[in-house]
Amino acid sequence: MTVRPLHPAVALAALTLALAGATAGVAAHAQTAAPPSRPPAAVKGGTAPAARPAAAAPGLTVDRVARGRYLVNTSGCIDCHTPFKPGPQGPEPDMSRHLSGHPEALKMPPVPVLPEGPWLVVSAATNTAHAGPWGVSFTANLTPDPETGLGNWTVDDFKQTIRTGRHMGRGRPVLPPMPILVYKNFDDADLEAIFAYLRTLPPVRNRVPEPWAPKN
Ligand code: HEC
Hints:
Blueprint: H1 8-32, H2 64-74, H3 77-81, E1 84-87, E2 90-93, E3 122-123, E4 129-132, E5 135-138, H4 155-164, H5 180-183, H6 188-199
Antiparallel strand pairs: 1-2, 3-4, 4-5
Helix pairs in contact: 2-6, 4-6
Bound molecules: heme C.
């Protein structure tokens, strides 16, 4: 599909939203997803160090996959890329579809028309489809399924996508609310760690729909 260039004001709104989405995503995530692995506070013997993976630095041996899992678990990816389902405490990520993006079986009806005013964005109950000035975007399948996920991506495709905000660094722009402006600040080692972790996920076959162009 073609995405038409956005009017500057609309682009700005979309931008602001992407940033807000990142913050909200991280905040909401704190309540819904499993925390990074840490030993229980009262470990028998009492002296075990916290198991927080160290930041990757040259010369340091780190478990890259563990670092990637930690970053994915703390950077909001799960909020948007794992569909929510209703749970006893409210919406919670459906871990049977972990990071597999907008469920292909969930066909979204037309976007509700908002009244004049400051409301700008509508989100699906799964938090995997978002309508705003950019049209409707559906969160991507980040699992290593070769046909519907990132199975055929190289680590450079991934790094270029996040760094340039374009699909594989050369395709169409990545739409809000994917917080590209936040994530482009990850350093190479962190992006490589995230990609290494995504590689270890069980592949989920789920073809995410193409975005819908904005109406006006
Ligand atoms: C606030 C919601 C949100 C958060 C948080 C989020 N994403 Fe996304 N992501 C999206 C949306 C929406 C798309 C689809 C955008 C499109 O179709 O242009 C997307 C697309 C992607 C893509 C595919 C881009 C492409 O060109 O095919 C990758 C890779 C990705 N996200 C990785 C991540 C990672 C890794 C994290 C966490 C560090 C993350 N996302 C967090 C919403 C989000």
